[in-house]
Structures are given as structure tokens and as C-alpha cells.
From TrEMBL:
It comes from Sinocyclocheilus anshuiensis. This is Solute carrier family 13 member 4-like. The keyword Nucleotide-binding does not apply. It holds the Pfam family Na_sulph_symp. It is found in: Membrane. GO terms for cellular component: plasma membrane. Keywords: Ion transport, Membrane, Sodium, Sodium transport, Transmembrane, Transmembrane helix, Transport. The chain crosses the membrane at residues 21-45, 104-122, 205-227, 239-264, 305-324, 345-361, 381-399, 471-489. Belongs to the SLC13A/DASS transporter (TC 2.A.47) family. NADC subfamily.
Length: 511
């Protein structure tokens, strides 16, 4: 009878714990979805409900809100503050657009390449906020010159003829009868084609920011959450680091970049790639000449490259190299030089270089100040990620209570708390990596992610445009990720084998 009462008490406690955890999860999710309060504030719900319901101690919940990945992000933000303060991002963006030219197709591709590159190191939101004003300036130049360019698609100017002042045959200098442009009186855009270019370029930036965020661990919060959860659960794995993730995800991003560009071009600019992507400099429309002139003027305003830009660029390269060579996986990294292993992470490098930016003068003041850092530091994202960690910790504990207690009382093996991949004896990365990457493909609505909201606020696109274009990007992303898992991901992470580090995960560390 006593044993029966113990079992009933055990079941009641387990049900209460699981119900409390489920309630906290539902409340937090409702606040996140409805946005009745700011996302960061909603992420604090587990901080007071878990201790009140007895799911986790207050100290245990608090430890979930500040992780190693938070330090990693803080170091990256220091570098991002220096990049933005000294206009290095603007110089990179304008230079890439100058290389691409003013042809609509190449202009979109140039902005996408620039955005992907910046989003590798900065947050997707920061990158979109940096690049979109530059794109808007180019778009406004296109709109302003739309009415003047009466023969938008057919009239071209031979740049060589402009230099000579006349054609070889005087009889050919007779001007053709001008055709009246089809100007849209009911729209801010001179022609429908202008509107399509604005839509294509705007959406290309938010999609490129998402693609670029896939490449590095620090590129997006979903990557950070995955790395933290994976390394906590499998501390002996030593397979997920900056180098291995970069090698795996870079081909994914490059393939997605090209396929997304083709999809957006087809959707908004049509199938005539030869007309909109020609690299020939001999024949250009009047609009293209004026647009390129505007871009060159913006670049000239930056002046020659400055000492702070050089220092920032050096730190940018140095941080990347140190991340990549710490523990690349296929060779020994620089951590081999230290006696104790496991003490140095990517966050160590990030915070060290970020701290040095506060010390290096320019020439009298430091490269960045605390105000520069504070202006860019996304504390809401930090708390949001911490709230996700806290929810996961509470769910983990409440799910484990029942099998662990039963194991103590009747010596039952606690296999029931293992994840599906461990139960089926497949490599956990087989399911974790696709899930992590596909979570980033929330690009169909303005509320899907902050970059979408930023682009939508400029007013060039409608929700229907985002839904159509985003659905295609979703399909492209899922296809490329699965292709990567079945090809180069298998030898890189040994996905066909059930690893030894997954046999005995550290599942009781948080109890």
C-alpha cells in the first residue's frame, strides 16, 4: 500500500510539473505570436513562472539567460559597431554595386552578394538596416530618371559615340520621332517596370540577409541556439565549430544565392536575362548611365580609405581566421598550443578582439566607445534567446522527472527521455541541422523575421509579393539543405554513422 501511495504521489508530482511547464510554454508562445508585449519582455515569463511553479530554481533559470554564445555575440557587435561607425559597410556595398553595374539584373545580384557577405558576420537585422538605405537611394534615382528616359527599353546610348560627338555616317544623325513614355499617373512609379525593379531589389536584400546568416554560427540567432543546445547536450562531440559549420553551409548559401536570384528575376523582371544582365559597357540606357553616376558620386563622398577602416578590416580578417583555425576539425587548430583543452571557444576570440577595439586609438579617441557598442547591441535578441534556453531547460527537466524517478524506484532504464535520433540510433545532426536551417526560412510574411519587416516598411512590396516570392525561396532552401545533408554533409559530419558521443549524453547535468 505504501508503494502504491508512493507511485500515486510520484505520478501526481510528475503531472503537475509537466502541466506547469506546458502552461509556461503556452503563455510565452501566445505572447510571442500575438506581440501583446515586446518579444524581449515575453521571453522573461519563464524567469518568474518556473520558480513560482517549482519547475526550476531561480538561479538555474537565470543561468540560462547568459551563455557562452552571448559573449560571442557581444564581441561580434563590437566589430559591427566599428564597421558601421567608419562606414566600411557602405564602402563595401557601393564598391560591389560599382562592379556589378546598373543593369537591373546585375544590380540585384550585386546587392545580394554584398548583403550575404555582410550578414555572415553581422546580424541579419543589422545588415538589412545598413544596406536598405543604400538600395533605396539607388531606387529613388531610378524613379527620378524614369520620366526623362522616354525610351526606357529601346533607346540606348552608345558611350563611344558620346565621346566622339557624332556617328560615322551623318545621315544617321537624324533623330527618330520620340515616343511618349507610358507614365503611370496613379502610382509613385513612372512605369510598371520601375515598380517591379523596386520590388525585386527590396526583397532580394532581405532574402540575401537570411542566406548570409546561414553561413556562420554567429550569423543568426537560430544558429547560436543550435550550437549552444548541441554542445550542452553532447559536450564530447567536438564536431560543431566555426570551421566545420562554415565548410558545410557556404556551398548551401552560394547555391541558394544563385537560385534565389534567378527566381526573383523570373518573378519580377521576366526571363530576358540577356537584356537585364549584360556586362557590356558599350550600350547603356540613359537611366543606367545616371544610376551609375549616382553610385560613383556616393562612393567619392567616402574619400580615400582611412586608418580606422584599415584597422577594422584587419580585425575583421583576423577574427575570421582565428575562428576558422581554432578547431577546424580536419586538422589541428591553434588551441593545440595550450596545455588545457576546452577552455577557449569562439567567444574567447570574439571578446578579446572586441575589447581591443576600445583600446586602439584613432588617433586620439578609441576606435569605438561604449555608446557605439550600446547602440547596436541587440539586448532584446539576447533575452529572447535566453528565454528560449530557459523554456528548453524547463521542458527538459519536466520530461526527465518521470522516467528518472521510476528508474530509482523500480530500476527501469530511462530510455524514454532520449530524443528520436538517439532512439533510432541515427546521428543527431541528421535531424538537427535541417531543422536549424529551415527555421530561418520564415520569409513569406513581414512578421516572419525583422529583415522582412524592415524591407516591408519602405513600401515597395505588398504582402502578396512577399508570399509569392517567399514561397519559392522556402522551396529552394529546403531542397538545397536536403541536398547538402545527402552529399557533402555526410563525409564532413559522418552522418551515416551513429557516433559514440551520442551514446551517453549529459542529460542529468541540469537536475
Amino acid at each position: 500500500m505504501r508503494d502504491g501511495q508512493s507511485f500515486l504521489l510520484c505520478d501526481w508530482y510528475c503531472v503537475f510539473s509537466e502541466s506547469s511547464c506546458a502552461y509556461v510554454l503556452i503563455v510565452t508562445a501566445v505572447y510571442w505570436v500575438s506581440e501583446a508585449v515586446p518579444l524581449g519582455a515575453a521571453a522573461l515569463v519563464p524567469a518568474f513562472l518556473y520558480p513560482l511553479f517549482g519547475v526550476l530554481k531561480s538561479s538555474e533559470v537565470a543561468s540560462e539567460y547568459f551563455k557562452d554564445t552571448t559573449l560571442l555575440l557581444m564581441g561580434v557587435i563590437c566589430l559591427a559597431a566599428s564597421i558601421e561607425k567608419w562606414n566600411l559597410h557602405k564602402r563595401i556595398a557601393l564598391r560591389m554595386v560599382m562592379i556589378a553595374g546598373a543593369k537591373p539584373g546585375m544590380l540585384v545580384l550585386g546587392f545580394m552578394c554584398c548583403t550575404v557577405f555582410l550578414s555572415m558576420w553581422l546580424s541579419n537585422t543589422s545588415t538589412t538596416a545598413m544596406v536598405m538605405p543604400i538600395a533605396e537611394a539607388v531606387l529613388q534615382q531610378l524613379i527620378c530618371t524614369g520620366i526623362a528616359d522616354s525610351l526606357e527599353d529601346s533607346l540606348t546610348v552608345d558611350t563611344q559615340d558620346e565621346e566622339s560627338g557624332q556617328s560615322e555616317h551623318p545621315s544617321q544623325n537624324i533623330p527618330a520621332p520620340p515616343r511618349k513614355p507610358k507614365i503611370r499617373r496613379d502610382s509613385l512609379y513612372p512605369t510598371n517596370r520601375d515598380h517591379m525593379i523596386c520590388k525585386c531589389l527590396s526583397l532580394s536584400i532581405t532574402y540575401a540577409a537570411t542566406i548570409g546568416g546561414l553561413i556562420t554560427i554567429t550569423g543568426t540567432s537560430t544558429n547560436l541556439i543550435f550550437a549552444e543546445q548541441f554542445n550542452n547536450r553532447y559536450p564530447e562531440a567536438k564536431v560543431i565549430n566555426f570551421g566545420t559549420w562554415f565548410i558545410f553551409s557556404l556551398p548551401i548559401a552560394l547555391i541558394m544565392l544563385m537560385l534565389t536570384w534567378i527566381w526573383l528575376h523570373f518573378l519580377f523582371l521576366g526571363c530576358n536575362f540577356r537584356e537585364t544582365c549584360s556586362l557590356s559597357k558599350k550600350r547603356k540606357t540613359r537611366r543606367e548611365i545616371l544610376s551609375e553616376k549616382r553610385i560613383h558620386e556616393e562612393y567619392q563622398k567616402l574619400g580615400p580609405i582611412s586608418y580606422p577602416e584599415v584597422v577594422t578590416g584587419i580585425f575583421f580578417v583576423l577574427m575570421t581566421v582565428l575562428w576558422f583555425t581554432r578547431e577546424p576539425g580536419f586538422v589541428h587548430g591553434w588551441t593545440l598550443l595550450f596545455e588545457k583543452k576546452g577552455y577557449r571557444t569562439d567567444a574567447t576570440v570574439s571578446v578579446l578582439l572586441g575589447f581591443l577595439l576600445f583600446l586602439i586609438p584613432d588617433p586620439l579617441a578609441p576606435m569605438i566607445t561604449w555608446k557605439d557598442f550600446q547602440r547596436l547591441m541587440p539586448w532584446e535578441i539576447v533575452i529572447l534567446v535566453g528565454g528560449g534556453y530557459a523554456l528548453a531547460a524547463g521542458c527538459k527537466v519536466s520530461i526527465q522527472i518521470r522516467p528518472i524517478i521510476r528508474n530509482i524506484m523500480i530500476f527501469e532504464t530511462p530510455n524514454s527521455h532520449w530524443p528520436i535520433s538517439e532512439t533510432l540510433h541515427i546521428n543527431p545532426l541528421h535531424t538537427l541541422i535541417p531543422a536549424t536551417m529551415c527555421v530561418s526560412f520564415g520569409v513569406m510574411l513581414p512578421v516572419g523575421n525583422p529583415p522582412n519587416a524592415i524591407v516591408f516598411s519602405y513600401g515597395h512590396v505588398q504582402i502578396s509579393d512577399m508570399v509569392k516570392a517567399g514561397f519559392g525561396v522556402n522551396l529552394i532552401g529546403v531542397f538545397v539543405v536536403m541536398l547538402a545533408i545527402m552529399t557533402w554533409g555526410e563525409p564532413l559530419f559522418h552522418l551515416s554513422e551513429f557516433p559514440t558521443w551520442a551514446l551517453m549524453p549529459n542529460v542529468t547535468g541540469s537536475l
